[in-house]
Amino acid sequence: MKRRTRGYTAVELMMALGLFAVGVSGIIAMQKLTIVSNQHAKNLAIATHIAQAWLDQLSADSTLWTETAGINATRWVVNANGSTDGVWQLPTWDAGRDFGAAFDALGAPVQAAANARFCTHVRLTTLFAETGGLVGGRQTLANNGLARAEVRVFWLRDGAAPIANACTQQGTITAVADATDVYHRVVKVSAVRQHGSAR
What we know:
The protein is α+β, with helices and mostly antiparallel strands. Helix content is about 30%, strand content about 20%. The strands form two sheets. Strands 1-2-5-6 form a four-stranded antiparallel beta sheet, with helices on one face. A two-stranded antiparallel sheet has the order 3-4. Strand 3 and strand 4 form a beta hairpin.
């Protein structure tokens, strides 16, 4: 007597395909999340490197801030003086250093803000004036200037509409600071000092 072989029914096949589809869709969703997370981590790393590069530039710029030359001999540190002291600034492009406020997607400086993926603002605040004087009730020495240097690097969130001229105009500095739903940002802080004598 022949034994009857039993195959899969259409219902069993449909259930197996349904389970397979659920598993595949879960894997696809995880891949999408992984790609987004990796892109954000990459942007965060690039922005951190840009902020550190700016702090290094400000530190190098401060070597021009000497007893004989004064703060006006610097390119960017001079903003820790007068009406720009303590105010977020969009730093200007320096052709000699090939460095400015705008950076491309890989973190390389670009002169044209239209090509920028990352943008930088700098705030320099005087802690000790180069001319000396009272600070917090204590007398400070002349030619012992010190400034707090803050660097803010920001980039657009996915799907957000950018603020017009955020990387080209001074007037948008405050707007960018308040737009936490529009931009991601990294902030780094250091200090720059006056050098006691020309070197």
